[in-house]
Write the structure tokens for this entry.
Amino acid sequence: MQKITVAKGDGIGPEIMDATLEIIKAAGAKIEIEEIEVGEKVYLAGNTAGIAKESWDVIRRNKIFLKAPITTPQGGGYKSLNVTTRKFLGLYSNVRPCTSFHPFVKTKHPAMDLVIIRENEEDLYAGIEHQQTDEVVQCLKLISRPGCEKIVRYAFEYAKQYGRKKVTCFTKDNIMKQTDGLFHQVFNEIAAEYPQIENEHWIIDIGAAKMADTPEAFDVIVMPNLYGDILSDVAAQIAGSVGLAGSANIGEECAMFEAIHGSAPRRAGQNMANPSGLLHGAILMLNHIGQTEVAEKVHNAWLYTIEEGIHTYDVFKEGISKEKVGTKEFAQAVIKNLGKKPTTLKAVNYSNGSSLKLPKYKRRAPAKKDLVGVDVFVNWQGLNADELAAKLNPIEKLCNVKLSMITNRGIKVWPDGFPETFCTDHWRCRMKPKDGLMLPKKTIAEILTQCELLGIDTIKTENLYEFDGKSGFSLGQGQ
Ligand code: NAD
């Protein structure tokens, strides 16, 4: 018996949760339910997180959380419960199967059957943003080796468990050589441990275009957070089944399962909503907790029901569907079909499954880290980089450093800049030690002090390191 936390949510949430629980219990799920209240009522009672402290305790104790959609009230101050839950519980992996059910559900992509595995915790979603000058704001893109290793390994283990043949990685490492470069590098390292699974890498732009055009060319796709956020919605939409897809958020300790759609408040309380998205979330949950036989039974009965043409209003189509049913009737039809397998659609087989067990991340021995320079960012209203270089000139002598370049929004504007390059008030000045070797750390403080004395407005510095002799920073564009 597995204890799980259940939140029935808002809008259509309670109806689709009741239907889902009824189906999985009828199929023999060994679960004990502990219910908590989250969402609109909690928000409107003045709790901006949408969840009470006691409810966190329940979620953390039970570790497995099945959550119906909730309504985030409009207006300021309310925090998305989904984002908070992912971050607090370390749910690093977001798994979203996107399958089409041709010819029973209308789709442009009859053969589509892919799974998007999205890194869920880092990247630009760390939310570290700063305004630095009148004209420039910044958002830090943080990608970590543990983050990459965990998500990429999860993707390959998922592929192994579910008999998937190929794992594709999407990044933009031709531009972001450090951040996306690390993701790609870790992908290559881990792919080598799974020779039985094909692997490939696509630059995200052409990869996304290919996925939208020919989704059947992909099997499992793994990617960093932002790309995954966008492309998992594209994939669900083009499968023709936004109302049908579920997703899993997996961490080392806890996991949360849900439908991908929202609380559809206009459909609430009318026995109209399609419970399939949440049911697919529950199927992912059953697989995750090792109740794979039940997962398989529910999934095949659901496929059979879709094949029978018993459809809720959202997927009902004259000529394809046979009977338009409500939430409760749909659930009863699935229950009646437990034990049956689809004949046109591919039946699922989870027999070789058990819950994925991933090794804990092991930190490597630290590399030899050498400070070889510093980027000093300054707020300066001038337009000509030659003038800024001249202003910095005394610092070269006083601090025994050399100004090696100035960039503006990453584009090299000194030396030998183009007058055509548009410049903002945000400049990066790269200083290297005169002897070309190591930069004593105290020199950075001296540079900042000298800038202050010369009336140069410094905003921040970034240290330039080499790790085991390998450069850990990008060149300026055009350098
Ligand atoms: P929505 O997904 O609730 O609805 C979009 C459209 O799809 C509507 O026409 C709706 O009727 C239909 N639809 C969605 N699910 C359906 C189902 N199961 N059966 C039949 N039709 C269905 O998106 P929205 O209208 O943008 O958002 C409504 C609320 O849901 C908002 O408060 C939003 O913040 C919240 N939301 C919550 C989650 C979540 O909890 N995970 C996710 C997205 C949106």
